[in-house]
Design goal:
It comes from Luteolibacter flavescens. The chain is built from one helix and five strands. It is α+β, with helices and mostly antiparallel strands and 130 residues long. It starts with a helix and ends with a strand.
Length: 130
């Protein structure tokens, strides 16, 4: 049974990595159209529903039909990270225990420079934040 569990866990981790990549691409599309990325408070919902709070987008269109949830049925979290010259953000899954901020969170950090149109993963493959 132990092997089945590790194979299932690997499949879930792989799905989180794929979801993070898709969400990062959607956030890039949003920021090009809107003139800026969504705020942390606006979150991933800005990809589906037009933000009603400041900073409002210059132009808005729905980028996704719905925001996926992680394999453990928890919502993903988006947060802008402090930066002086680049848009830095993280995408986070609460992981198997479904509790944000615990040792099994799966976090991927990205940055996108103002001068370049390249979105790059800062950390690499999603992994727990411990």
């Amino acid at each position: 049974m132990g092997n089945y569990s590790s194979v299932a866990d690997q499949a879930r981790w792989s799905r989180v990595g794929n979801d993070h990549s898709s969400l990062a691409a959607a956030l890039k599309i949003y920021s090009v159209s809107a003139g800026r990325p969504p705020s942390t408070d606006q979150g991933l919902d800005a990809l589906v529903n037009e933000p009603r709070t400041e900073p409002k987008p210059r132009r808005w269109h729905r980028v996704m039909e719905r925001v996926p949830w992680d394999p453990w049925q928890s919502p993903y979290r988006y947060a802008q990270l402090p930066s002086t010259s680049k848009w830095r953000f993280e995408l986070r899954s609460a992981g198997k225990d479904m509790v944000f901020g615990s040792s099994d969170d799966i976090v991927t950090m990205y940055e996108w420079g103002e001068a370049t149109a390249e979105l790059k993963e800062v950390i690499g493959e999603p992994r727990p934040s411990y």
